[in-house]
């Protein structure tokens, strides 16, 4: 029962999922960049975040078909932290 | 989540839309007319292109066309490349390079708390919207845990915080995405395109992104809610407006939701408190009066309860019929005590009748009028 529903969650709609995923990816890029700019961080911070969150939530999320990524609401919250502490790369350094 | 009413959710969404729009304004001030023309052109493409074909998403067309125009005319306007270097490598796992001490914790704690609140709130609201759209159910507990794991993952890969996206999720469902594969595909395509086509992405003019974000803002805003302002009860509209105002003023979605929930709760309490009424009948020979208490008695209606009795009537016996009343808290029990004791002080015999089971439990536990006479005497001195 559980196994079959997991299979349904993943492979119940392969064609539709792949195409929709591509459209969403294209729409996500400018948003991820824009949200990084709102937060005052490098575009890659938002882009990597969107990739990570989408890829991880695909496995551990509770709502199949819902897209999670870097968002404007979250970016707005981080503005003052980034401003106060210079650059967000102090907090999430990637080198 | 159960306490977040419809109007708070609407207020939250509207505030989000306003904030997204306001965040675009810096890109539109102190710039040449080219930027305004490009933004306007971008919006025109976004809204008009779907009339030609819907197979290609119009925001994508906007970005491609505006980038092409900028490159052909070699316009000197801000591009994504000016914002910072795009990554040309895949993200790698690494531990955040911050000192792991209390000072760091105190800096990040307030931010992480509001991020967690807003992230969960937005994710759960989006999940509900997708549930409605697809006519399926979702596991909200699993989603909450998943958001936590995904954000930890993002942090460890050098990313920022995120949560579910209302706009993108709707695009996904409308484009035919239903399963987990769609979310995974979106993430992987995104990374591949950025890393291998980064050169092109860097040439996208900011005006194109501003146009896309204005579209996101307009489509996020619930225009219906403005029409509903006139029809909905004033208190409901008030909750929505307060949520919006608090969010826009504080730039913090969590504060707005908190204010909205609080106001909705106060509204509810005062509405319920109004349902209470006390009627009374006197028997034929004028020696006994029966009061009928109907409704919810709690902190908001307790004072009203005391005011509805006539203590100075000079009658022999009073029966308080509580069959249709419910006592909720110690404030209401305290009020009942006061009523009984005040009648006794006037030398009136009091009888309580018809207390329902739940009320009887709380009255039995906290009331003093039926306890030892010492306590009563103590109380009556005051």
Describe the structure in your own words:
The complex is a heterodimer of chains A (95) and B (382). With 95 residues, chain A is mainly alpha-helical. Chain A has one domain. Chain A contains 4 helices and 1 strand; from the N terminus they run αααβα. Chain A has helices at residues 2-11, 14-39, 43-60, 72-84; one strand at residues 68-70. The N and C termini of chain A lie far apart (45 Å). The model of chain A is unreliable at 86-95 (pLDDT under 50). Chain B has 382 residues and is α/β, with parallel strands linked by helices. Chain B has 2 domains: 6-268, no CATH class; 277-381, 2-Layer Sandwich (Transcription Regulator spoIIAA). Chain B has helices at residues 6-24, 33-48, 58-72, 80-83, 102-134, 140-156, 166-174, 180-196, 198-201, 206-220, 223-231, 234-250, 253-273, 302-307, 330-345, 357-366, 373-381; strands spanning 162-164, 277-282, 288-297, 317-327, 349-353. Chain B has a 4-stranded mixed β-sheet with strand order 2-3-4-5. In chain B, helix 1 packs antiparallel against helix 10 (206-220) and helix 2 packs across helix 10. The longest helix of chain B is centred in the first third of the chain and has 33 residues, at 102-134. Chains A and B meet through helix 1, helix 2, helix 3, strand 1 and helix 4 of A and helix 1, helix 3, helix 5, helix 6 and strand 1 of B.
